[in-house]
Structure formats: C-alpha cells, structure tokens
Design goal:
The chain is α+β, with helices and mostly antiparallel strands. It contains 2 helices and 6 strands. It has a 4-stranded mixed beta sheet with strand order 1-4-5-6. The chain has a two-stranded antiparallel ribbon with strand order 2-3. It is flat and about 60 Å long.
Length: 120
C-alpha cells in the first residue's frame, strides 16, 4: 500500500488572472450575470441569453470542393437582452482586459452587424 499523501493538482492560472466562478469565465462575469437575472425578474430587461455567438466572417471553402480552407470567425457575446424601457437589444461583454483580438471583433460587430457592444 502506498502511503504518499494525495496532493491536489494545481489549477493553471489563466492568462489574464480570471478565476472561473459559477459557470462563468470570471468572477466579474458571474456577478454581472446575477445582476442581469435580478433585472430580468424586476422587469427591467427581458429575453436574457448568455454566450451568444455572432458570425463575423463565414467559413471559406476551396473552389474545387475539397473542403474548408478557413474556419469562420465568431464573436461570442457574454450577454444579449432587450432593454424593456427602450425596446432595444443590448449586446454586452464583461471585460477585464481589452485584447487586440477583442478590439478587432468589436469593430467587426459594428461594421458587419451594426451592433455596438456595451462593455461592463
């Protein structure tokens, strides 16, 4: 019998220090989700959805039909909901660090879909 103590494996730290919490990518995103769920119960917002994908650039296929040569580029919004006071759809992202990749996707969302992302 092996009597070595069991040492739990260390979790890898995320690149930007975010700690996954309650099924969300970070504590900040988890807190915002709770706030939005309360706002929905109070009737301030409706149709709350989480992790909603938007296609920015579709997949590219070879002309000879041999397959996909470039995968689609997508932006995944943390939250999408309707503001009941204005009736407008809100696309929201909880940001700690605005990476260069995110900045490009934010610009593509505005250019392609006409959607300005609300950053919290």
């Amino acid at each position: 019998m092996n009597n070595k103590p069991i040492i739990p494996a260390r979790r890898r730290r995320s690149k930007y220090g975010a700690v996954p919490t309650g099924g969300h990518a970070s504590r900040k995103e988890h807190r915002r989700a709770r706030e939005l769920h309360l706002m929905q119960r109070a009737g301030l917002i409706s149709g709350l959805r989480e992790q909603v994908p938007f296609t920015l650039i579709p997949s590219q296929f070879a002309e000879d039909g041999s397959g996909c040569i470039e995968r689609a580029c997508r932006y995944i919004a943390d939250f999408v909901y309707t503001d009941t006071a204005t009736g407008l759809q809100v696309v929201e992202d909880t940001k700690g660090v605005r990476t260069p990749e995110y900045k490009i996707k934010r610009k593509l969302m505005l250019y392609i879909h006409g959607i300005r992302i609300k950053e919290t």
